[in-house]
C-alpha cells in the first residue's frame, strides 16, 4: 500500500467517523416551538471543524446530508428524506458546511491554543450557522427575520455549552493524540502549546 493510498484511506475513515459522530449526537434532541430543535449535532459539527480542518470536515457534513437526502433517519430526532431540505432547518444544515470551513480556517491561522479553539467553535459553529439558519428559517416559516432572530436566542445557552464542551474535548484530544488532527504532521510541535 502506497503512502498516498494510506493517506486517502485514513482521510475517508476520519470523514466516516465524524459523520457517524454527528449522526449519533442527533439522538440528543430538545424540541422547541418553531420546528428547529436543540440538538447535539452541532457539537459534532464543531468537533469536525476543529479536528478535521477546512478541507476534510465539509466532507463529513456532506456525507451526513447525503444520507439524509436518500431517506436515512440521520438528522436530529430521526429525520431524513428530501423534506428536510425544504423545511425550517435547511439553512442550519447548509450553515454546517460553511461553519466547519470557517472553524477549520480559524484553527489554522496560528498556533494551537485553547482560546483559538473556543473562538473558532463560537464563530464558525454558532455565528456562521446562525447566519445561514435564521434567514432561511424566517423565509420558510413566514415569520419576520427580527422575530426569528429573537426566538433563536433560546439556542444560545445550549450552543455556548457545546462550544465549551468542544473546546475541552479538543484540547484534551490534542494533548493525548495529536495525530488525530488534520495537521498531524505538525501535531507534535503544536500539542505542546
TrEMBL record:
Keywords: Cell membrane, Membrane, Transmembrane, Transmembrane helix, Transport. It is found in: Cell membrane. The keyword Methyltransferase does not apply. It holds the Pfam family BioY. It comes from the Bacteria. InterPro entries: BioY (IPR003784). It is a multi-pass membrane protein. Gene3D superfamilies: 1.10.1760.20. The chain crosses the membrane at residues 12-30, 59-76, 82-106, 118-140, 160-177. Belongs to the BioY family. PANTHER family: BIOTIN TRANSPORTER BIOY, BIOTIN TRANSPORTER BIOY-RELATED. This is Biotin transporter. It comes from Microbacterium aurugineum.
Amino acid at each position: 500500500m502506497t503512502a498516498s493510498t494510506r493517506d486517502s484511506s485514513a482521510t475517508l475513515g476520519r470523514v466516516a467517523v465524524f459523520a457517524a459522530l454527528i449522526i449519533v449526537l442527533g439522538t440528543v434532541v430538545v424540541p422547541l416551538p418553531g420546528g428547529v430543535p436543540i440538538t447535539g449535532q452541532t457539537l459534532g459539527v464543531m468537533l469536525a471543524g476543529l479536528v478535521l480542518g477546512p478541507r476534510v470536515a465539509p466532507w463529513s457534513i456532506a456525507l451526513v446530508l447525503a444520507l439524509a437526502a436518500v431517506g436515512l433517519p440521520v438528522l436530529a430526532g430521526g429525520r431524513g428524506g428530501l423534506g428536510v431540505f425544504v423545511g425550517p432547518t435547511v439553512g442550519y444544515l447548509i450553515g454546517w458546511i460553511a461553519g466547519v470551513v470557517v472553524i477549520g480556517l480559524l484553527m489554522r491561522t496560528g498556533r494551537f491554543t485553547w482560546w483559538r479553539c473556543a473562538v473558532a467553535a463560537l464563530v464558525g459553529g454558532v455565528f456562521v450557522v446562525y447566519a445561514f439558519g435564521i434567514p432561511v428559517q424566517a423565509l420558510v416559516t413566514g415569520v419576520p427575520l427580527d422575530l426569528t432572530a429573537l426566538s433563536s436566542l433560546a439556542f444560545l445557552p445550549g450552543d455556548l455549552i457545546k462550544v465549551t464542551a468542544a473546546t475541552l474535548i479538543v484540547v484534551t484530544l490534542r494533548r493525548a493524540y495529536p495525530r488525530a488532527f488534520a495537521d498531524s504532521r505538525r501535531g507534535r510541535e503544536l500539542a505542546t502549546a
